[in-house]
């Protein structure tokens, strides 16, 4: 009887120990499952963000999807490099931006021609386009390029409107900002680099252009001339490439980061927003209000980045044309 009574506490302790061990194991499994779920949710959110900004072979309209994989163009092989010419989402929006740019310039030219013929001055949208054109011609192209800058006014104006439309098309519902693609901004920067260097070659001639690479000050002794001849070409070439790299990355980073911020704020609604959850109104209205504010900022940034890209291109053209 005594052994039975003494064994009861020991059995109870063993039972409590087994219950605690089982609870600890269950807690560990729950924590592991929660961590996996959190990890999966984070990856899903990242994928959703990247999917909205990345290029793809389809265009999603929310209620439907346009598959572009059926439109195939054979790739081009150049020196072992394959150039894919497939129609993608960003290509479609680049074409739309091109059409809008051409239409804008055509309307502005027609309005200017009518004004020269003695008709009434344009108003409304055409008047705004004319104001933009005059500003870009006088205060961006001519002011930064200087003498001979009228040759490059069409390029600077076209560059501004094309980038502007690319930026704004990413803010419309189901749109895509092609300038949030580093390949697009890199191509624009390469075209600008070609225009800049050719303008310098035309203005300075072959000998003067080579001086922009072999920038050796006059009056140096032979030893320092040799040192500068070795040091300066890599520095000048790196400077030329750095300018173009800065053009491409600045436009890409500003447009992509704005979309990331908007999508991240809207994602807070999915993370914390539930109509039955406590604080549901704050979790829904707060992110919506912040997203709307950032959207208005993005409209300003769209104009600003187009202006900066066009202005810097004009500045670089002016610098190389008047290099001495």
What does this structure look like?
The chain is mostly helical. The protein has one domain (about 90-320). The chain has 7 helices and 4 strands; from the N terminus they run H-E-E-E-E-H-H-H-H-H-H. The protein has helices at about 1-55, 90-115, 125-145, 155-170, 180-210, 220-270, 280-320, and strands at about 60, 65, 75-80, 80-85. Helix 5 (about 180-210) packs parallel to helix 7 (about 280-320) and helix 6 packs antiparallel against helix 7 (about 280-320). The termini are far apart.
What is the structure about, briefly put?
The protein has 324 residues and is mostly helical.
Annotation keywords:
single chain; 324 residues; mainly alpha; two-stranded antiparallel ribbon; 7 helices
Shape: globular
Mean pLDDT rating? 77
Q: What amount of the residues lies in strands?
A: under 5%
Low-confidence stretches: 1-13, 26-44
User: Rg from C-alpha positions?
Assistant: 31 Å
In spatial order, strands of the major sheet run 1-2
Number of strands: 4
Structural class of the helices, strands and pairings? mainly alpha
Cα-to-Cα separation, first versus last residue: 112 Å
- Structurally, the number of domains stands at 1
Number of helices: 7
Instruction: Tell me the series of helices and strands, N- to C-terminal.
Output: HEEEEHHHHHH
Main sheet: strands, sense, barrel: 2 strands, antiparallel
Question: In which range does the helix fraction lie?
Answer: over 70%
């Amino acid at each position: 009887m005594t052994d039975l009574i003494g064994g009861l506490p020991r059995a109870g302790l063993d039972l409590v120990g087994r219950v605690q061990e089982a609870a600890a194991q269950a807690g560990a499994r729950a924590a592991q499952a929660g961590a996996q779920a959190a990890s999966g949710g984070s990856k899903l959110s990242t994928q959703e963000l990247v999917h909205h900004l990345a290029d793809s072979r389809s265009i999603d309209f929310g209620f439907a999807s346009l598959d572009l994989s059926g439109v195939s163009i054979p790739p081009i092989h150049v020196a072992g490099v394959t150039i894919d010419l497939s129609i993608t989402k960003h290509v479609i929006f680049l074409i739309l931006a091109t059409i809008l740019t051409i239409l804008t310039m055509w309307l502005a030219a027609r309005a200017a021609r009518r004004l020269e013929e003695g008709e009434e001055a344009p108003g409304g949208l055409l008047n705004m386009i004319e104001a933009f054109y005059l500003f870009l011609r006088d205060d961006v192209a001519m002011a930064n390029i200087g003498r001979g800058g009228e040759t490059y006014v069409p390029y600077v104006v076209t560059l501004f409107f094309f980038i502007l439309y690319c930026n704004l098309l990413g803010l419309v519902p189901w749109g895509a900002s092609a300038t949030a693609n580093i390949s697009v901004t890199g191509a624009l920067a390469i075209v600008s680099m070609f225009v800049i260097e050719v303008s310098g070659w035309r203005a300075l001639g072959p000998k003067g252009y080579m001086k922009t690479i072999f920038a050796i000050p006059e009056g140096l002794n032979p030893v320092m001339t040799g040192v500068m001849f070795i040091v300066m070409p890599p520095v000048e070439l790196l400077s030329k490439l750095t300018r173009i790299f800065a053009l491409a990355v600045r436009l890409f980073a500003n447009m992509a980061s704005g979309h990331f911020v908007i999508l991240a704020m809207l994602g807070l609604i999915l993370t914390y927003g539930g109509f039955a959850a406590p604080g549901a109104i704050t979790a829904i209205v707060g992110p919506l209000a912040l997203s709307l504010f950032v959207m208005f900022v993005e409209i300003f940034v769209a104009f600003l980045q187009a202006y900066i890209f066009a202005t810097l291109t004009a500045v670089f053209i002016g610098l190389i044309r008047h290099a001495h």
